[in-house]
Structures are given as C-alpha cells and as structure tokens.
Design brief:
about 20% helix; Purple Acid Phosphatase, chain A, domain 2; alpha/beta; about 200 residues
Amino acid sequence: MRILAVSDVPSSRYYEHYKPGCLDGFDLILACGDLRPAYLEFLVTMAHCPLVYVRGNHDDDLVTHPAEGCICAEDRIVEVNGVRILGLGGSYRYRQGGCMYTEQQMVQRIRKLWLQLKKHDGFDILLTHAPARGLNDFDTLSHRGFECFLPLLEKYRPRYFVHGHIHRTYGPRIPQRTQYGSTVVINAYEHCELEL
C-alpha cells in the first residue's frame, strides 16, 4: 500500500503545481492537521483514494465543518483496506482553543478508546497532529509532545506513528523519519510518502 502523508502546509507539488496524474498510485492519504478543508477535498478528489485526517491546533473550523469526502479519525480507529488507523488530533494546550489538550485530557481520550483497541486488536498507524514527548518535539508549550503517546507505541507497536505540528523549516536538524522501537516515526510536515 502506497501512502501519502500531509500536514501543516499544502504541498506545492500536490496543489499549486499539481499535474494530472501525480496523485495516481496512492492507496491512502493521511492528513495530520492544520490543513484547510478545501485542500483536503482537493486531494481526495484528485487521488481517488480514501483520505483519513485528524485536526490540528488551528482546525477549530473542522469541528463544525468537516472536510467533505474525507474520513475524520478523531478519537476512534478507522479501518481502510485492512489498515487500522488510530486518530488523536490536536496539540498540547498553550492557549484557549478547541483542538488543544492538557496531558491529562489526552490521557482521558486514550482511556476511552480501550474497547475499540480491544475490538480491533490494536492498530497499525497512530495518526496525530502533535508528536510524542521527547520524540521530535520541543520544550516550549506550543510544540510539546504528549507523554501518553509513548505507552501506546510501546504496548501496540504500530508500524507507523505519523504526526505533524513540528515544521521542518523550524531548524536544520528536524528529522522526517526516526525510529522508536519497532515503530517508524514520520513527521509529515508538508508531505511524505511511505509504504505499508
């Protein structure tokens, strides 16, 4: 399965400089937040494959106006072509906003998923906006990751952990791919292609 992951800013390759057919061959698109609904709708229309998304810290409008033709995976496991995707959007709370959470609030969101995790026997991809604490995050509140993501990775050992929020333009040493145990961690800022 060929997957396109996107986050935070529209990729000029797949939007402003779009060429017919450049999205052919993708079986799934994962969107990690802070992307306008119009961009998500464009991608799902041109790619002719499912697009699964979570909301970013700037996506309060997606709560009331979801992206048409796309699948919101917030607080649930979505199965697409046999791939189990667990979605937990939003960022660490650093100001008022609907898509920001304290560590304890994120812990509560994960606890509410216990029945889905049992029913689906885990998940293959963890799809988030924020990274995990100590794994591609920063010390500032606005770019801090969630500690509670780490036990999820350790217990269920998904193939991929795909997040956004940490723009690779923030510095020269921000990796796009890292490893955490058996899980490949993808920073999907702008876009990244992966295989499953």
